[in-house]
C-alpha cells in the first residue's frame, strides 16, 4: 500500500526522487475509529498524517473549523513546532499514511521547497507554493498573442508629405515608424530612414516622404503568436513588423514591446498616459493596465506588489483624465478623491468605480454637471463599471463643496444605520489624487472630531464585520457531497478580506489613526499596542492570502466571462497545500473577529 502514495500531492511534489523513495520506505498506515481523537491542543505529533480514506474534523474549543478529506495532511504545527493548536477527531472510519516525525524534520532540513509547507506564516507558504501557471518563462511569452504586447498607434502619411511633416507627426505620436499611402500602395517609413535621408543622402527637408519609404512590408496578424513575429524579425533582419487587425494596419510590434511582455509594461504605461492628448488616447493604456495584472501574476509577482503597481498606474490614469476633462474652475477649486480598495492601494483586477470630488466652494453648475457625467462616463468606457452603491463623481452626494460633505458626514453619524456606517467606512478610505488635496484632510479631520469619544457609535460602525460569516473550510462541501450536490464555493471577499479590512478600519477610527491602507493600519495599531507584533504579521499574511486567491478567481472569471463569480473560490478545486493555506488564513480571521467582538462588545447588537 505505501508504494501507492501519491507523491504529486503538495507538498510532496517538492521532494526529489531519492527523497520520495526514502519517504515511501518509512511509511506506515494507521486506522482511526469514528470519534477517535488523534491530536489534542498542546500535544506533540510523532507522525504527519495524510488521509487516504475517510475524514477528520478540526475543532477549536468545540467549534468545527474544518473537515479534512483524502490527500489532506495534518498536523504540521504539531510535528514541527511541538504542539497541536486544535483538536483532530476522526469523523468516520479513516485510513491515514503515517510519516515519521524524524523523517519529516530531516526532509525539511534538506529541502527548502518542502520546508515551506511547514512555515508558520501563511503568506510565506503561499509564496513558496506558487503554482507552475504563475511562473512566467520565455516559453510562455513566445506563446502569447501579438495583441497582448504593447504597441503605439498606427499613423498614416500621404506620400507627398514632406520629411519635416513626417518627422513631426511621428514625434507627436511618440512612435518610430509610420505608414505611407502612395498610389494605392502602403509603405513604411522609420525614424532611421528619415535621418539617413537627410544626413547621408543630403535630401532637402521638403522632399516627399515617398522617396525614403519602402513598400516591402513585413507583417503579422494581431492573433499570431509572438514566436511567429520573432521568426519574421529574424528572417528579414527587422526590429519591428507591421500588425494587422481584422485586415487593417493597427500599429507596429517592436523588439522593445516583446521585452515588455517579459519584464512587464508598467514602465511603459505611464509615458503613454502622460502623452495622451484626448480622452480617447487614454483608452489603450487603461486596457494595458489590466493586461499588466495578468502578466505580473504569471511572472509570480507578489499580490501586494501587483496591487501597488496597479494602484499607481490607475491613479496616473485618473489624474490625466481629470486634467483633460475638468474645466478651469474645477481644476482650481477641486480635489479628486478615490475610495474603496483603490483608495487603500489594494486594487488588482478592475472592479467598480469608487471616486468623488471635493470643492472649496461653488462652481458653475453647468460645468460641474458636465464634468460629473463626462468623468464617470469615460471611466465606464475604459472598463470601470458603475458602482452599485453609486459612489461616483457622477453622484452629487459624492461631488460637492467641503461644507456640504461635512454636513453629510454628520447626518450619517447621527443616522446610525448599517447603510450610513458603510458610507462612513467608504469615506474613511478616501485618498486625494490631484487638485486641492488639503480639502480631503479637512473633511477627514472633521469626521474624526465628530466621532472622537463616541464609543457606542464606533462599536456600531465595527459591527459591520458581522455582515458576512467566515465559514469553516470543508464543512459545507462535505455535507453537500454526501447528498450528491456539487461542492461549495467561498466568497473570499466576504469571508476573508472584508472582516480584516473593516475590523482594521474600526480599530483605526477608534484610536484616531488616519493611515489609509490596511497594511499601514496594521502597522500603526501594532505599534500602538492594540495587538502583538506576531498577530499583526499573521493578519497581514492572511489578508495577502485572500487577495492572492481572489486575484486568481478574478482572472479566471475574466477569462470565462463570468464576472459575477470574481470573488468565488472553490475549495474542491484547490490543491491540498492551497487548502491548508486557506484553512490557516480563515482560522486567523475567526480569531480576529472574536477580538473585534470582545473589544467593541458586539453582542450588545444582538
UniProtKB/TrEMBL annotation:
Pfam families given in the database record: CBS, cNMP_binding, DUF294, DUF294_C
Residue ranges constituting the Cyclic nucleotide-binding domain according to the UniProt record: 11-125
Record SUPFAM superfamilies: cAMP-binding domain-like (SSF51206), CBS-domain pair (SSF54631)
InterPro entries documented for this protein: CBS_dom (IPR000644), CBS_dom_sf (IPR046342), cNMP-bd_dom (IPR000595), cNMP-bd_dom_sf (IPR018490), Diverse_CBS-Domain (IPR051257), DUF294_put_nucleoTrafse_sb-bd (IPR018821), GlnD_Uridyltrans_N (IPR005105), RmlC-like_jellyroll (IPR014710)
Molecular function GO terms recorded: [protein-PII] uridylyltransferase activity
Keyword terms, alphabetized: CBS domain
Listed name of the protein: DUF294 nucleotidyltransferase-like domain-containing protein
Organism of derivation: Roseicella aerolata
